[in-house]
Amino acid sequence: MEYRHLKEKSHYEDLYDRFTVEEGRRLEKIWNEPEVIGTKKNMYVTCNVDTRHSGLVNFYMYFWKGDRNRNKSKTIEKWMQEDRDLDAHYDRVNIKRRCKNCSKDMKLTDKFLHVTYEKGKRNYVECFFWCKGCDYGMRITEFGDEKVFTPRRCPECSTKVKCTVTENKKNTTYQDSCPKCTWVSSKPLVIKNYRLKEKIDRNFEQDRARFCLNHEEGMEYLASLRRIDELKNVVEGIKSDPKNQEGTPEYIVEHLERPTVAKLQKKLAKALQKVGFTTLKFDDADEIRGDVVVKFRVQDSNESRSASFSKREFKKTVEEALLYTNWRILPTSLSYKMGVLKGKLSGTDSTPELLELVKKRGLENKPVPESLKRPSMVNGRGEKIFF
Ligand SMILES: [Zn+2]
Ligand SMILES: [Zn+2]
Q1: Which ligand is nearest to the CA of 151?
Q2: Number of structural domains found in the chain
Q3: Which of the listed residues 34, 321, 362, 386 has the most CB atoms within 10 Å of its CB?
Q4: What is the pLDDT of residues 24-72, one digit of tens each?
């Protein structure tokens, strides 16, 4: 009467892999089914997986296989614990009974644990007893449900009947007969023998190798998940940095143009030319408290402009040209004499100063000109990635 649920670990490993193979085959079948992409003259037009999404299938299956493997040992441990619990339940219930007829101790002939997966129902142990003295039988469950079986007697002479059990491939037959007279029961009990036919799965090992990762592959998968996590953190870090959030002063400072003195001169000369200021000249640049300061002079070729109008026009033009740069005109330095304007320009690389500058110029929350935008990352193929 050996009755154990817990089996060798290899049994559960095989079972888990069988489920994996079945599920893998099912998924592959779904992916490989041609997709109806439209109808043409009542005919279905389909396309197959190769042209549709083979890359996506591989991607999906990679994570599916990895996750199946990742959950394997946890699931197996859970299954084994469930079976250990069933065995403990079986061992915990010990029922003894005296015969209802003659009060002698009955012999335990069978003990089962009924396992149910129905919600709200409990597993229970069921025992069968037999009285050697008077042939009475009894069935009892751990909930206390009892049923007594009295010995069957011959309807002709009341002798205790004899039961002969015969078994063939299909059935087991319980035939009652009288050992004393010729009576034989006309209704023998026939029970069909159910034998679970084990299907031979010829492709199992081959598919197991395709769908079930081995230890090394499982470890490699976990390592790749960690790498994905790390990459995610890097991307999150880049995204959450105010430098990368459009509209913040930090973002704008990051995108300001920082021309050299030579480039600055060209840029300003071009802008000033358009509004009648010519021959822009720069002196040698000086460094003052970390900033670069350069003296300039320029002529106003428009003779009709007054000194104050000329100064105002010049200042406006320069400020517009320098709006998205790290340069500014030092306001008190500007002078005008006989059509010649003189002053100083200052450029800085100091982030706090530039943040100040951005705020003063009212550039916060304004979109940066497209020409100044730079990609967050450039990938291995040289493609620009904007977050
Ligand atoms: Zn008895
Ligand atoms: Zn008889």
Answers
A1: 1
A2: 3
A3: 321
A4: 999 888 877 766 666 666 555 555 545 456 777 888 889 999 999 999 9
